[in-house]
Design brief:
Elements: H1 2-16, E1 23-24, E2 30-32, E3 57-60, H2 79-85, E4 89-97, E5 100-105, E6 108-113, H3 114-128, E7 134-140, H4 145-157, H5 159-162, H6 175-178, E8 182-186, E9 197-200, E10 207-213, E11 219-225, H7 236-251, E12 260-264, H8 275-292, E13 300-303, H9 309-321
Parallel strand pairs: 3-4, 3-13, 4-7, 7-8, 8-9, 11-12, 12-13
Antiparallel strand pairs: 1-2, 4-5, 5-6, 9-10, 10-11
Helix pairs in contact: 7-8, 8-9
Amino acid sequence: MKRKWLQISYSLALLISGLSFPTYAADGALQSTKAIVSKTEWMKGLLDTLPVCRISIPGTHDSGSIKGGVMLETQTLGIVEQLNQGIRAFDIRLQKKDTKLGVFHSHAFQEIYWESEVLPAFIHFLKAHPSETLIVSLKKEGGELADYSSLLSASLKNSANAYYFVVDFRSDLRLKDCRGKILFFHRDRAMDDYPGAACTNWIDDATCLMTLRDRNGEEGHALLEDEYQYESGEGAGKKIEVCINNLNRVSEESVTLTRWGITFLSATGLPFGTPLVFANKVNKPVANHLMAGSKRNCGIVFIDFTGGQGGRKLVEYLINSNFN
């Protein structure tokens, strides 16, 4: 009886918050996506006590890459547009450019800078929407590590910025610990007293158990899938398989565990298997699989071309799955 009353109370709370549940057709197609008050504040409807690792979080791979031609472009929407779309995880690749850190994909400068455009956009968004939290993966995309470390450290140690950072990582971080803040995942060590978590044992082009380490030695783990290199676009079937396998594993984790889940839907098989070719072949089938199984607790999912039909479908499902 008590459990039933709690379920009723929770459903009422969602309705009072302006939330409704998504509906699906027999084939798993999403019929209604009106499950949130606003994509800019969809986390507002989640409980403070919810572990962040148990949330389905849509993200963008190579988030700033909208230039460089078909071989390097991975998005059509800019950072601000992605935030407004509901994206809450970002993959930012940086290299020294002039006197700042430019956003790059391979050799292609994206004509935006970390210090003057990207980080301020994140902070401005969190000021306006303090119910939200952002996961930001940072990676050196080229150049000297000393330059990357010096410039990134300066921006992260700035007291005006640091207020908006999750300083200490724990695998069991709750949403209340992270609201209005950025949780950084560092793929390259830039400083000793870094905020967030350092990523170690991240095996290139592989599925693996990755370690997330706090600056004080606290450790957590993530079920990581980042298989991205194929011979051509014909490898999309294999890519779909490895993505689904990781998403199933993350979704089916015991609620008592606090392992994180990270799945990259991005891939390439140049010269003809461009990121767009893979996105067009991968995004929709993965979305259909999640819908058909009513998958929840999907972890962080990094997606290419979230402005496309398959990308939009994935983002909407991942957000809505948190309220099923």
